[in-house]
Design a protein that fits this description.
With 772 residues, this protein is an alpha/beta fold. Among the domains are: 138 residues, no CATH class; 266 residues, Spore Coat Polysaccharide Biosynthesis Protein SpsA, Chain A. 56% of the residues lie in helices and 9% in strands. The chain contains 23 helices and eleven strands. The strands form two sheets. Strands 4-3-2-5-8-7-9-6 form an eight-stranded mixed sheet, sandwiched between helices. Strands 1-11-10 form a three-stranded antiparallel sheet. β3, α7 and β4 form a beta-alpha-beta unit.
Length: 772
């Protein structure tokens, strides 16, 4: 007896099939992974025609789905193939840093790798012989059993106890640093909840420049120039070919009377062509009526500190009350001075006003995304909490305004360390000056986009504080500040956040954890390996909530960077040769394109209006990033290998293989993924936008297609129960299928999606996921 045809299920299935058919045969084949088509029911559908079709066409639709999955798998395979080819190119033609092979740390890590490889071979032999289950006795007659028994005796009685003690010390340091991080986050929450902000006793009107030379007569309001203090604006630079014009332009359009300011372009370039370009830019702004000077040192000693010290020695500096400093890649907004100078009014003991950095290229690649997480926490949590509660923090070297009297009283710029900004901040704090941090005032700048540039920057940032701590330790003890401030400087500012953090990160996760796999009598708890670091990563990522999808890469990458930070900390503390090395961070001028378009469009020799300076706000940075992705540098990318990271990668992967013998699940996965992360960084793949992000997107797209195939199949199995509820449940299932597709697409994007809706002639509604 034949079963009666169920027209209700056929009607639902035909609609579902039509949706899949339209999605598959979309005209824009290149964008089908980034677009979700959500169709509303068509009013002109003929139900009779649908009922004449057989539900057996499910197999045809499934075949189409499998073709889509096969295409996505091919895309994933292609992405990983490109990844392997890039890695092969790095290995076959390396251009490694010159000091990698000769560094003390690198030689020590190589010895450590040889030891763990020998131990792994030894343990594998013991495992296959069954000695792990029934350890041999020291009285055994066979030589191999006797050697293994003696190894167990030495391991249990002589090696494991000191390793466990050292592990416990590192765990205590880890917990202390975690408590400090939690306290900082709680302090930030309190500031947000109570809306605590620095208050200025006066406020300037944010209008066009009040200078008579910059507006037509009769149109400007009468302004008392005495209300505007004399401000010196300094732009130190050295061979900054890519970014010199954008920083000069941004500073020259400050909404401040020309009679009350002076711009100093402090050029330390040794490239004659770059010097001529900077001079031409300065002359252009001089012709527009901006008070700007070009200074070039013939004897370039002291790096940035020497450059600033030389500029402050000019006779005319005594006529100025404040000095604002901007690095060559920084673009202050036109109202920067009007938003910072008022805080000095009525606060005679205020020496520094520091503003927040924002980044034009934070979404350029995986490396810049991870840097954005770190620096967002640094500014919004560390700097803000320290500024509110103790009126002290480390000066960031740029995007800040100093009272010149404070600089002179504390001794000015000194050339004794590579962190002259922190040096002058500590000395000013010891002299009793207070600092204010403004989280609402942002200054656009650029992040290093290559691992090599970022590594050199971090080496300087972590070796310099140790140099400074060694130099000024006794000065802190002899200073007249309170005991609380001395304790904060020594224990929190220097020891905990500059020394202990890189020390325990490297030793705990790169040395102790692999050793505990070969010395299982010494235990490193799972909560230290996984749970507490995960919670700390969540706290670190709170100021940048859009970066939550990168929380696991962030945790692994921070452990990877601990090698560089530990090496820099040791170099600075013990005065190794490379601790005084200063290398200018490479910039690409990501934000210069919009500036050139804006300023070249206006040929009038007047200070441009606010609308002319589009790139100084974050609203147009996404469009600027899209513009820059189409304009890549013509220089061929150098093939770099970072040997320390590669050797540690093999150490961790070897330890992960040993952890399988002990059945330590969490430790195995952590060592495996951490080793892979070291391998990716060592092959210099962390800055490859197309390779890494493209592979993640392809994998996510494949997962979405698999789920879109499984959901209709699961619905097919539950169709008899759903038919009893007729059309209502069928529509719910249809909507659920599309909602699942939308969720998968949102997961696939690497940044927050924005939805835009548009209608077509057929009554359909299409929601496009626009990737910013």
């Amino acid at each position: 007896m034949s079963r009666a045809q169920n027209h209700e299920f056929q009607e639902w299935w035909n609609k579902q099939r039509q949706t899949n058919h339209d999605l598959l045969l979309s005209s824009d084949e290149s964008s089908h992974l980034f677009t979700v088509d959500i169709h509303s029911p068509r009013p002109d559908r003929t139900v009779g025609k649908d009922r004449s079709r057989s539900a057996r066409q499910l197999s045809w639709v499934c075949r189409l789905k499998f073709q889509q999955i096969a295409a996505s798998l091919a895309s994933v395979a292609n992405s990983f193939l490109v990844l392997l080819l890039t890695a092969n190119r790095r290995v076959t033609s390396p251009d490694s840093p010159a000091d990698s092979a000769s560094s003390r740390l690198y030689r020590a890590i190589k010895v450590f790798l040889v030891v763990v490889l020998l131990l792994l071979c030894f343990e594998l032999v013991a495992y296959f012989k069954g000695w792990h289950f029934s350890p041999p006795s020291v009285r055994s007659g066979e030589l191999a059993e006797l050697v293994y028994a003696n190894w167990l005796h030495v391991r249990v009685n002589y090696l494991a106890p000191p390793l466990q003690s050292f592990t416990n010390v590192c765990i205590v340091l880890f917990l202390i640093q975690s408590v400090d991080r939690v306290v900082l986050v709680l302090g930030c929450f309190w500031i947000k909840f109570r809306r605590v902000k620095p208050k200025a006793v006066m406020e300037y009107k944010t209008t066009s420049s009040p200078s008579s030379s910059n507006v037509e007569e009769g149109n400007a309001e009468k302004v008392n120039l005495e209300d505007y203090p004399m401000v010196l604006l300094q732009i130190p630079m050295c061979n900054e070919r890519e970014v010199y014009h954008q920083s000069i332009a941004a500073v020259c359009v400050q909404d401040w009377p020309n009679e009350r300011m002076l711009v100093q372009v402090l050029d330390d370039s040794d490239d004659i062509e770059v010097q001529q370009l900077i001079k031409a830019e300065v002359n252009k702004w001089q012709q527009r009526g901006v008070p700007i000077l070009y200074r070039h040192r013939l004897i370039r000693t002291g790096y940035k500190a020497g450059n600033l010290k030389s500029a402050m020695s000019c006779d005319y500096v005594k006529n100025y009350e404040f000095v604002a400093i901007f690095d060559s890649d920084f673009q202050p907004e036109p109202e920067f001075l009007k938003k910072t100078i008022p805080y000095f009014k009525g606060n005679d003991d205020l020496g520094l006003v520091q503003t927040r950095w924002s980044f034009v290229n934070k979404d350029e690649n995986l490396l810049t995304r991870l840097q954005n997480i770190n620096l967002s926490f640094h500014f919004e949590v560390e700097q803000q909490v320290n500024g509110v509660f103790i009126n002290f923090f480390g000066f960031n070297g740029t995007a800040g305004v100093w009272r010149i009297k404070a600089l002179e009283e504390c001794g000015g710029w000194l050339e004794r360390t590579t962190v002259e900004d922190m040096d002058v901040a500590v000395r000013a704090h010891l002299c009793g000056w207070k600092f204010i941090y403004l989280n609402d005032v942002k200054c656009v700048c650029e992040l290093p986009e290559s691992y090599g540039a970022y590594k050199k920057q971090q080496h300087r940032w972590h070796s310099g504080p140790m140099q400074l701590f060694r130099i000024c330790f006794f000065d802190i003890l002899r200073s007249k500040v309170s005991v609380t401030k001395k304790a904060n400087l020594i224990f929190l500012f220097f020891l905990l956040r500059k020394l202990i953090l890189p020390f325990y990160s490297f030793t705990l996760f790169c040395i102790i954890l692999p050793l505990t796999m070969f010395l299982p009598e010494a235990q490193l708890p799972a909560w230290v390996v996984c749970y507490v670091p995960g919670i700390m990563s969540v706290l670190n990522i709170l100021p940048a909530p859009r970066s939550f999808p990168f929380i696991v890469p962030y945790l692994l990458f921070e452990n990877t960077m601990s090698v560089t930070k530990f090496n820099a900390m040791i170099s600075g503390l013990f005065q190794f040769g490379n601790s005084y090395e200063w290398i200018v961070t490479k910039k690409l001028g990501r934000s210069s394109e919009t500036d050139l378009i804006a300023f070249e469009r206006d040929s009038v020799p007047l200070v441009p209006t606010t609308g002319l300076h589009r790139s100084a706000s974050e609203s147009g940075l996404e469009e600027l990033t899209k513009l820059e992705t189409t304009k890549k540098s013509g220089k061929k990318r150098r093939n770099r290998l970072y040997r320390k990271e590669l050797v540690i990668a093999f150490v961790l992967l070897t330890a992960s293989a040993r952890s399988l013998l002990s059945a330590q699940g969490i430790h195995f996965y952590f060592l495996l993924f951490q080793g892979i992360t070291f391998l990716v960084v060592g092959l210099d793949l962390i800055g490859e936008q197309v390779i890494l992000i493209g592979a993640l997107k392809s994998f996510s797209g494949t997962l979405m297609k698999v789920l879109s195939l499984l959901v209709p199949c699961c619905f097919w199995r539950s169709a008899p129960q759903m038919l009893s509820n007729q059309w209502r449940n069928a529509n719910v299932a249809n909507c659920a299928t599309h909602q699942l597709s939308v969720c998968c697409m949102a997961f696939k994007t690497t940044s927050t999606p924005f939805f835009s809706t548009s209608g077509d002639n057929g009554g359909n509604r299409t929601s496009n996921l626009l990737i910013s």
